[in-house]
């Protein structure tokens, strides 16, 4: 059974749709591994219907307390919301959930297990996070809808000479669209001007008058991803804000003139400018836009090729893999599986008795252990594929841990994950006895917050079970 992924994000004409769009991109990448539900206070009906058609569940909530009440501790939670603060993150973590934050402003302390920011030139040092927090940063982890991901993998196509694509989002309350079109129209070097607006754009009448007066201006409204790609991939230049559409244009290998008009675009703008991915137009003043257009015509044969390889979905599947696994109790049929894992060379090397285990001895041992009330053996699996095992043996006031991961799946963070899930299953105080030269396992227990007592050539790790209120 798939594990659950809950996404908390909102969007409407006032706050924009960027959070919902990039979360839907992540959801598309992970749909084969998770049962995905969006929890929204604000979501347009059209987008809600689109999400449902893609296989996501959409659930409307009245407030954020309603969301907290839904959590059981077993879900992976994704937050993409400027209004959800550090305390809200702590509330989610206190439930026992894994937490992922999509963030592009780093304006608070984070308690997330994973932080995603696909802007270029972002570093871990920019975040105030926890020692356990992992990061997925930069264009290698770009959150683009599936058609754009697939288009990014393809070779660059010939562009229509001196053609331009203009888009400022769905509503464009500042009407930068019409202002930009007027400036471009006064430059005789452009042959074709394609303008995209959303269904909530309120200045269509005056824009259509411009189009009727100038045959090289074409207006396009409320395009879907495939229609956008068809239009963009043949265009030489795009004039855009530093929002999600900038990354879509870079994926399609367009030259881009870009700037900002709201604060939350500044991080992507700074990163793109520093990486020399855009021709800078600052805040879209008439003078700055004309300068940027002149620079395009002066340097268009020297434009830097942007590397968005279309493999971010594969990378995210690897990052989220450890959140998609689950445990089940071992049974009699697992005897040979555990025998093979027990005789893995690295397992034997790190065991206190490193001699090879004989099959007959293992059969007797396993037959006793599987029936023993003081032993719990659990199998880690993904889609019924066994990945590793964890065993708890009752000793005094603690349960002692023994675990191993199949050699084919090491290096994916599953060691820490199997211990976390095992403790959640057991709900008791635990300890582990580890050779000091088993550096990998030592790091796993230390990263999970176990206390360590060194006893010569062994480390004794202990952790109290934190009962939830």
Mind explaining what this structure looks like?
Helix 6 (176-185) packs across helix 11 (286-299). The protein is α/β, with parallel strands linked by helices. It is built from 17 helices and 20 strands. The protein is elongated and about 90 Å long. It folds into 3 domains: 3-143, Rossmann fold (3-Layer(aba) Sandwich), CATH 3.40.50; 147-302, Glycogen Phosphorylase B (Rossmann fold), CATH 3.40.50; 325-463, Aminopeptidase (3-Layer(aba) Sandwich). It has helices at residues 18-30, 45-53, 64-70, 86-94, 146-152, 176-185, 204-213, 225-232, 244-251, 266-274, 286-299, 312-320, 335-342, 345-350, 359-369, 414-426, 439-447, and strands at residues 3-9, 34-40, 57-60, 76-80, 98-102, 114-117, 134-137, 160-167, 192-197, 217-221, 235-241, 255-259, 279-280, 326-329, 375-382, 385-395, 398-405, 430-435, 451-455, 458-463. The strands form 3 sheets. The chain has a 7-stranded parallel β-sheet with strand order 3-2-1-4-5-6-7, with helices on both faces. Strands 14-15-16-17-18-20-19 form a 7-stranded mixed β-sheet, sandwiched between helices. Residues 325-466 form the N-acetyltransferase domain. Keywords: Hydrolase. Substrate binds at residues 145, 248.
